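hiii, so i know i said id send this last week but things got crazy w the move. better late than never?? heres the sequnce for the chain we talked about at the cafe, plus the structure i predicted for it. fair warning i was half asleep when i ran it
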Amino acid sequence: MPKSDFVRLTGLFRNKTKKGNLVGTARPEDLKQLVPVIKEALGDDKGIVFFVVKSKFDTGPPYYLSAAIDRGNPARPEKPRRKIEEEDEDDFTTSEREEIDL
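okay and structure toks below
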């Protein structure tokens, strides 16, 4: 596992053709960092949690995607996944929507 629990996979930018979507490409060197995370998660029968995080820098991508092994939360019991209805597909609040110009 890398020094940090989180592995940065890619920066995310607004998709120019599909409003409301973000896009980014993980480079081979980024994917190599993900391999130990996947191996450890599989070895411990754990999942991997993906995070979309707003960048605090003025230059570069406005968001980035990172991953970490799911450490679980004993206070939060596992729930079955719910189907995402079409009208629920964008959970951004109005202020977040305006902020990132979706």
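btw Residues 7-72+85-100 form one domain. thought thatd interest u
miss u guys!!
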